[in-house]
Design brief:
Strand content: under 5%
Largest sheet: 2 strands, antiparallel
Strand order of the largest sheet: 1-2
Number of helices: 15
Oligomer: single chain
Order of helices and strands: HHHHHHHEEEEHHHHHHHH
Helix content: 55-70%
Length: about 400
């Protein structure tokens, strides 16, 4: 009965997710685009949750892996490199235009390598020091992308890379609407289905990791690193694996972002983006997959939805209040309110912070037995040798 009920719920949820963009596009493609961006942030939040939620390592430079994946796809899916290097132009006269089948593994591996490189020098750092180092790493990557236009123009500097190829899957161009008879599925709806598949795969992988031996090792490090090391857990390798796994999700999400936008620039990967991704994990519920997904969806969609609130308020004040500042104010107030009302997050893990109220209490010792300890005598070693009530000991 329970399995059939779960199957019905699963089928209803699947139908709702499949029909959602088709219903939403009737109200305009802008709403579907908001959902697409939210799905990308869900992937980013799930990747950061491995580092912050499972392993307990604070990472304020996570947006760097997002940038690495985005620029990798931008370079492989545009004419930027062939226009800058005549030798590549001779070899690939029409540009690279790399297939999605190659781009996703490449972004995953490259971001994972950079994640391990970030984790290697931070193995002995905790807390504020780890946050400062990861923050610096994120800024280094952004500055790198911003200045790597001379002496060789690789990233086109602050002007960014444009004319990036849309994703093509088995001849289907996601950058163009799909017509099925008289019905048209918009481009943003096609991207929705691709992002949804990637998010589902990421959720399944994260869940399997959480319940695996590796996931339990990460959680042991999060709770007490010294105790985890004493129990035989290789904390060095486990931390590197956490950084690498989390970064790989960010790289894939960045590649999808570049294909979806068709343009990337260093301004898209500022420190504020890292702060927002960390906020998604914290506000949703650290280490809890449903909570992380909820936090990512809310914080990704909230700024766009507030455009329809801040705009009229700006008009009511004759332009004296800037709409962008109002949006930031509303987001900050919402975050403060959530933290006051739900300090553990909107949907925290039920195991997190569990008290010991339900722990059974040991029964009181029977009077006159060897369990009753005489006042003033703390250990059996302090009792009088040879006493009649001397308890059994390891040493005869």
């Amino acid at each position: 009965m329970k399995n059939s009920k779960n199957l019905v719920v699963f089928l209803i949820a699947a139908v709702a997710l499949l029909a959602f963009p088709l219903l939403l596009q009737t109200q305009g493609n802008a709403w579907v685009r908001i959902v697409d961006i939210a799905l990308l942030y869900v992937m980013l939040a799930l990747g950061l949750n491995i580092v912050v939620g499972y392993a307990g390592l604070l990472d304020l430079g996570y947006v760097a892996f997002f940038a690495i994946g985005a620029y990798l796809y931008a370079l492989l899916g545009s004419t930027q490199l062939t226009d800058s290097f005549p030798a590549l132009q001779a070899m690939f006269p029409n540009g690279f235009h790399t297939s999605l089948i190659l781009v996703i593994p490449a972004a995953l591996v490259l971001a994972g390598i950079f994640g391990a490189l970030l984790g290697a020098p931070t193995l002995k750092l905790r807390g504020d020091y780890l946050a400062i180092v990861t923050l610096g790493f994120g800024e280094i990557i952004r500055v790198f992308m911003n200045t790597l236009d001379h002496p060789y123009n690789i990233t086109n500097g602050p002007k960014g890379i444009s004319s990036i190829d849309p994703i093509r899957i088995f001849g289907l161009n996601l950058g163009r609407p799909l017509k099925i008879g008289d019905y048209t599925i918009s481009s943003v709806s096609l991207y929705y289905y691709l992002f949804l598949v990637l998010v589902i795969f990421t959720v399944i992988l994260s869940h399997r990791l959480q319940n695996s031996r590796v996931g339990r090792g990460w959680m042991a490090i999060r709770e007490d690193e010294i105790a985890a090391k004493a129990m035989g857990i290789n904390t060095r390798n486990m931390k590197l694996l956490a950084f690498g796994m989390g970064a790989s999700f960010g790289g894939v999400s960045g590649a999808m972002f570049a294909a979806f936008q068709g343009f990337v620039s260093p301004e898209s990967f500022s420190l504020m983006e890292s702060v927002m991704i960390v906020s998604m994990v914290v506000l949703g519920g650290i280490g809890h997959l449903p909570g992380v997904i909820l936090g990512a969806v809310l914080l990704a969609a909230l700024p766009e939805v507030l455009r329809y609130v801040a705009g009229p308020l700006q008009d009511m004040t004759d332009g004296r209040l800037d709409a962008s500042i109002l949006r930031q104010l509303f987001i900050a107030l919402a975050m403060i309110l959530i933290m006051l009302v739900r300090p553990r997050g909107l949907w925290p893990s039920p195991e997190h912070g569990k008290s010991l109220k339900g722990t059974p209490r040991a029964p009181d010792p029977v009077s006159g037995s060897t369990q009753a300890v005489t006042p003033g005598i703390d250990t059996p070693a302090e009792e009088v040798p040879g006493g009649a009530n001397r308890p059994m000991s390891i040493n005869p």
